[in-house]
């Protein structure tokens, strides 16, 4: 499961990350969790670097994978495990060149053609969505649903597909059953009254 930071004003992304990492540790499932540092577009590189540094300091000692969204230079500067790019970011092949061969590189794809192309260009996993309506990101295309996400996953055997967008405790198992290797969440964890408990429940539901 990927937990993506909600770094909108008024949120406390580091507290959510700390709770998520602790929850995975309690369950002995740190290898099932990845944290993606995602900040708003208008956040300065300095602030993104600061948050990524703090998040990595939680993840690395615990053995939890740490990825950075969009900003490859921040990923490299903090020594993250990898990064995620989409249509408005560097192309996948360019991102692979910047990151080098040994790092995790995720790419957003919404259909089979884009998925095959991203894998050829060097993506190690694909973020495919939106699975359902998202409450934390606007401007997305219509939801794909579980069946379409499964079809994209079948187009790229051997490359994990991470389903994203409106994923909840109720919908996550159906996405895995359809063929996704994992799910990515923002609101289902960040907006929960107890983010650590939300991560525990999600990890248990997917174990
Ligand atoms: C796992 C995962 N999947 C998709 C995305 C979305 O990336 P992108 O399309 O570049 O949009 P932004 O997140 O940059 O707004 C993601 N971040 N993670
Ligand atoms: C950042 C992002 N990308 C998406 C895509 O479909 O590309 S959906 C999304 C938001 C995910 O947050 P939540 O779990 O709150 O819906
Ligand atoms: Mg992006």
Low-confidence stretches: none
How would you classify the quaternary structure? single chain
What structural class do the secondary elements suggest? alpha/beta
CATH H-level superfamily: Aldolase class I
Q: Helical content, roughly?
A: 40-55%
Mean pLDDT: 98
Main sheet characteristics: 8 strands, parallel, barrel
- How would the global form be characterised? globular
The ordered string of helix (H) and strand (E) elements is EHEHEHEHEHEHEHEHH
Based on CA atoms alone, the radius of gyration comes out at 16 Å
Number of strands: 8
What would CATH call the architecture? Alpha-Beta Barrel
Distance between the terminal alpha carbons, to the nearest Å? Answer: 10 Å
Question: What brief labels describe this structure?
Answer:
207 residues; alpha/beta; TIM Barrel; binds ligand LCLJCK34; binds ligand 3NM; binds magnesium ion; EC 2.5.1.3
What does this protein structure show overall?
The chain has 207 residues and is an alpha/beta fold. It has one domain (2-206): TIM Barrel. 44% of the residues lie in helices and 16% in strands. It has nine helices and eight strands. It has helices spanning 13-27, 45-62, 72-78, 92-99, 112-120, 145-155, 172-178, 187-190, 195-206, and strands spanning 2-4, 34-37, 65-69, 82-85, 104-109, 125-128, 161-164, 182-185. Strands 1-2-3-4-5-6-7-8 form an eight-stranded parallel barrel, surrounded by six helices. Strand 4 (82-85), helix 4 (92-99) and strand 5 form a beta-alpha-beta unit. The longest helix is centred in the N-terminal third of the chain and has 18 residues, at 45-62. The relative contact order is 0.16. The mean pLDDT is 98.
């Amino acid at each position: 499961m990927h937990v993506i930071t909600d770094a909108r004003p008024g949120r406390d992304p580091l507290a959510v990350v700390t709770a998520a990492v602790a929850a995975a540790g309690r369950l002995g499932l740190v290898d099932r969790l990845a944290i993606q540092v995602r900040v708003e577009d208008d956040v300065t590189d300095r602030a993104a670097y600061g948050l990524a540094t703090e998040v990595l300091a939680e993840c690395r000692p615990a053995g939890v994978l740490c990825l950075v969204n969009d900003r490859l230079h921040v990923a490299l500067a903090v020594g993250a495990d990898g990064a995620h790019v989409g249509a408005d970011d560097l192309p996948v092949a360019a991102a692979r060149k910047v990151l080098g061969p040994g790092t995790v590189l995720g790419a957003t794809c919404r259909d089979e053609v884009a998925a095959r192309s991203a894998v050829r260009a060097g993506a190690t996993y694909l973020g495919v969505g939106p699975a359902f309506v998202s409450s934390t990101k606007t401007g997305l295309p219509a939801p794909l649903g579980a069946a379409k996400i499964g079809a994209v996953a079948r187009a790229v055997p051997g490359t994990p597909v991470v389903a994203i967008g409106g994923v909840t405790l109720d919908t996550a198992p159906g996405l895995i059953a359809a063929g996704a290797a994992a799910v990515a969440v923002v609101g289902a964890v960040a907006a929960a009254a107890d983010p650590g408990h939300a991560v525990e429940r999600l990890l248990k539901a997917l174990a």
